Structures are given as structure tokens and as C-alpha cells.
TrEMBL record:
Belongs to the fatty acid desaturase type 1 family. Residues 14-90 form the Cytochrome b5 heme-binding domain. This is Delta-6 fatty acid desaturase. It comes from Lobosporangium transversale. One of its GO terms (molecular function) is metal ion binding. One of its GO terms (cellular component) is membrane. It is found in: Membrane. It is a multi-pass membrane protein. Keywords: Heme, Iron, Lipid metabolism, Membrane, Metal-binding, Oxidoreductase, Transmembrane, Transmembrane helix. Pathway: Lipid metabolism.
């Protein structure tokens, strides 16, 4: 595996940058972020960032200490990021020029909210230190060994039933085993993508490429680019790709008027096709999810075609090539074309449960925009729901039913998320935040209701839009009367 990048920006002499200077320099086009009261200049590094450029661009001009710590290995903060340090940061409230003015004025709602966010961030960092002391960021390799044995069993059963099957039941059972295999290894690949297995970037990348590309036909690099943005701007209608699913779904009525997606870099239009699908999205939710894997194939290929700076591009292209050799060969062993078609549909469509599990934690949650001053922890808990289930069922959900806890601590191994739950509950009680957790059935009902609420407003929106269009035409007629009539 190649290194993340061959580029290192020279360490420059430090000075002090105030809030106002930081704002001015960012407006002028510099890529500056604040981490642990230090200012870092990432203009040249941004194109080499393994998590994609957008993950950095969403942090420009603000304190993103919690985001950086949550998503990066310790060595990034301890060693690598120091190459980009250019100054100490002077917050506005610490600036001698502004402190007397701020102290003499009554506090606005925004200032109160910002002060509360600072307190939540401090408590969140204490929580993170406490969980480290409990060794919950350490990997239990025995757990992964059991998981690997489950994957191997499912894959072996898929092969045996395919090669030695004698009837439709055998072949369909093979397809189901392969679907469950893909479903389960996605959780393992997810951990590798977050560098939470070996905590060694090269090794975890290798694991992720083997599981996602060679065995699943999906790009782990594409997943990282999308998923890291999702973790930073969770449930933001304009920025989070995980809730931008037009023409099929709209999780907020804000999407009705269209918007420019910062992730997809294009206008998302609420056209007639989208109007139709969104009107029935609560009914179409599960059927559409059955075809989700086919879309992931397309996204993976587009990523590897377009991302020239991605350092693991060659390895992933090779991995996908191997996948598209072994899977068609696997299908070729089936007796008829009808059986091949049925096998493809069953093996792919029954992975819908993974897509449901992923969207379940976000589709029914808040999509409000509370600004850059909202603390990372508060945002994650506001936009994410946990799914309650008995311990013996953790294997089915992959441990990622604890999405809220995962969003707070993305690099914590999945098998430790349940152990972190009591600490997170206590944290929420202490800082006054709501910990959203529901059973699987209740969670599905919440998502169904949220989708139905948006669907029910499509007709009303179209009526309003029609009325506004008529008013505009009438206004134009008054301002610019028919010249032929005047003559």
C-alpha cells in the first residue's frame, strides 16, 4: 500500500491569529481550521486528504477539534498535523480588543447557545477520556475472530449450495447465504474504514479493500469520501449525501424548492419524476432499498474513474476487477439463465436490510441547521437515533444499531458500543441532551411517519407553487401590458 501522500507542507513560524483575522483570511480563500486552539493551513494538503476534500471544507474557519479527534487516529493529532500549524488561535472572547465590549453588552440568544455548546464540548471531551480509561477504544480481536468464522461459514455455504445444489431451493438458499455474507462483512469493512480494527492505517485500509472491493464489489474509498462528510454534517439537507436521495426520497420539505448539493456538485431538482416518487415514498421505502446495492456499484466505479488523487486507486481497481471475475464465474455454475437472474436478484435484494439499518438512524431525525456554533456532540445526538435490541441480536445489527454512540465516537470498535451506552446516557443527563433510542419496530414506524409527513405535503407545495406562478404572470401582465391592445 502506498502512503497517504508524498506531500508535506513546511512548518512555518508561529504567531497569533484572532477570530476576526481568521474570518478575513478564510473569506479571502485560505483553508484554515482550528484544532486545540491552534490554526492549521491546509491549502496544499487538502487534495491529498484520504477522506476527500469536502470533509476539510466543512471545517474551514471554525474550531473542529472534536470532529478531527473523532475521525482520526491519535498519531494525526500528535505528529502529522503539526506540519501544518501556523499560529495560535485567539478566540473572540479572549481578544483584549473585544472582551470589554462583549462583557458590557447583554448576551444574545446566539451567544448563550454558543456558551452552552462550549460547556457540552468540554463535557464530551471528559466523556471521551473516561471511555479511553475504560479501554473501550481498544480492539477485542477474539470478537473479530468469531465474526470472521461467521463470514467464512456463510460464504462456504453459498459456494457449496451453488456448486452441488440440485434444485431451486438449494440455489436460492445459496443466494441468501451470499446476501447475508455481504450484509455482515459490510460491518467489518465499516470498522476498517474508520481505522478501528488494528488502528494502523495501512493494515486497516488493506482489510477494507479486501472485504469491500475483492469480496463485495464496492469501493471503500468511495465509502470513506461519502461517509466522513456524513459524520461531519449529519442530516444537513444541502451537505449530507446520506439524506440526498432525489428523485426517490425527501426527508425534509426544504428539498421541494431544489438546492445545490455541495457533495454531488450539482442542482438537485424537485421535478415531476421526484414529485411522483416522493408522493409515495413511505410505500416505496423498502422496495427501493432492495435495489440499493446496484446503485453502490455505480457510485464505486464513478469514484475510481474520477478521483485521480486517491492513493489506493490502483489497488481498488484491481479489487473490483477480481470481483467482476469471480462473481460472474459463480453465476455461470447455475443451470439456466432464469436461475441466474433469480440468483442475482435474491443475492442483491436481500441486502436491503443493511440499507434499512443505516437509514433507520437518520431519516426520521432532525434536519435543522443550528449553525457552526453547535457542539459536535449535540449535533450527533440531535440527528441520530439508536435502535434497542437484546444482546443476543447484536450480531444481526452488527453493533451499529448504536448509531448515536458510533457518531460520537466513530473510531470505537463496534463490539464496545454497547458497553459505552451507560456512560453516554449519563453524559446526556448531565448536559441536558436527549438520547434517542427506540426498538426496531418503533424506529421503522418513526421513519415511515417522517416519510409520510413529507409525502403528504407534496400536493400542498405544488398548489402553492402554481399559485405563485399565476401571481407572477399576473404581475408581469400589469407591468408589461399587451402592446397590441394599446395600439
Amino acid at each position: 500500500m502506498p502512503p497517504e501522500s508524498t506531500y508535506v507542507e513546511p512548518h512555518t513560524k508561529k504567531n497569533i491569529i484572532s477570530r476576526s483575522e481568521l474570518d478575513a483570511r478564510c473569506k479571502a480563500g485560505e483553508i484554515l481550521i482550528v484544532v486545540n486552539q491552534k490554526v492549521y493551513k491546509l491549502d496544499k494538503w487538502i487534495k491529498h486528504h484520504p477522506g476527500g476534500q469536502l470533509a476539510i471544507r466543512h471545517c474551514i474557519g471554525r474550531d473542529c477539534t472534536d470532529e478531527v479527534k473523532a475521525l482520526h487516529p491519535d498519531y494525526v493529532l500528535e505528529k502529522k498535523i503539526k506540519y501544518f500549524e501556523i499560529a495560535d488561535f485567539l478566540p473572540r472572547e479572549s481578544d483584549p480588543e473585544f472582551a470589554p465590549i462583549l462583557n458590557s453588552l447583554p448576551r444574545t440568544k446566539e451567544e448563550i447557545f454558543e456558551a452552552q455548546s462550549v460547556q457540552v464540548s468540554a463535557a464530551y471531551r471528559q466523556l471521551e477520556a473516561r471511555l479511553r480509561a475504560e479501554h473501550l477504544f481498544e480492539t477485542n480481536y477474539t470478537n473479530y475472530a468469531w465474526e470472521f468464522s461467521r463470514y467464512l461459514t456463510l460464504f462456504t455455504m453459498a459456494i457449496v449450495l451453488n456448486l452441488y445444489g440440485t434444485c431451486t431451493m438449494h440455489y436460492m438458499a445459496s443466494a441468501l447465504c451470499l446476501a447475508m455474507f455481504w450484509h455482515q462483512i459490510s460491518f467489518f469493512a465499516h470498522d476498517a474504514g474508520h481505522n478501528s480494527i488494528t488502528h494502523n492505517l495501512q493494515m486497516d485500509n488493506g482489510i477494507g479493500i479486501f472485504l469491500a472491493d475483492f469480496l463485495g464489489g464496492l469501493s471503500i474509498g468511495w465509502w470513506k469520501k461519502s461517509h466522513y462528510v456524513h459524520h461531519i454534517v449529519t442530516n444537513h439537507p444541502i451537505h449530507d449525501p446520506d439524506i440526498q436521495h432525489l428523485p426517490f426520497f425527501a426527508v425534509t420539505t426544504r428539498i421541494f424548492r431544489g438546492f445545490f448539493s455541495s457533495y454531488h456538485q450539482k442542482e438537485m431538482v424537485f421535478d415531476r419524476i421526484a414529485q411522483f416518487f416522493v408522493s409515495y415514498q413511505h410505500y416505496l421505502y423498502y422496495p427501493v432499498m432492495m435495489f440499493g446495492r446496484f446503485n453502490l456499484y455505480v457510485q464505486s466505479m464513478l469514484f475510481l474513474i474520477n478521483e485521480e488523487n486517491y492513493p489506493y486507486r490502483k489497488q481498488e481497481v484491481f479489487g473490483l476487477a477480481i470481483y467482476w471475475i469471480w462473481y460472474p464465474y459463480f453465476l455461470k455454475q447455475l443451470p439456466t439463465w432464469n436461475m441466474i437472474l433469480a440468483y442475482v436478484l435474491v443475492s442483491h435484494m436481500f441486502t436491503f436490510m443493511l440499507h434499512v439499518q443505516i437509514t433507520l438512524s437518520h431519516f426520521g431525525m432532525s434536519t435543522e441547521e443550528l449553525g457552526d456554533t453547535e457542539s459536535f456532540a449535540a449535533k450527533m445526538l440531535r440527528t441520530t437515533m439508536d435502535v434497542d435490541c437484546p444482546t443476543w441480536l447484536d450480531w444481526f445489527h452488527g453493533g451499529l444499531q448504536f448509531q448515536a454512540i458510533h457518531h460520537l465516537f466513530p473510531r470505537m470498535p463496534r463490539h464496545n458500543l454497547r458497553s459505552a451506552q451507560p456512560f453516554v446516557r449519563q453524559f446526556c443527563d448531565e448536559v441536558g441532551l436527549t438520547y434517542h433510542i427506540h426498538g426496531f419496530a418503533k424506529g421503522n414506524h418513526i421513519v415511515y411517519s417522517a416519510l409520510k409527513d413529507v409525502a403528504d405535503q407534496v400536493g400542498f407545495f405544488l398548489e402553492v407553487a402554481k399559485h405563485e406562478a399565476n401571481e407572477f404572470v399576473e404581475a408581469q401582465r400589469i407591468v408589461r401590458p399587451d402592446t397590441k391592445k394599446d395600439q
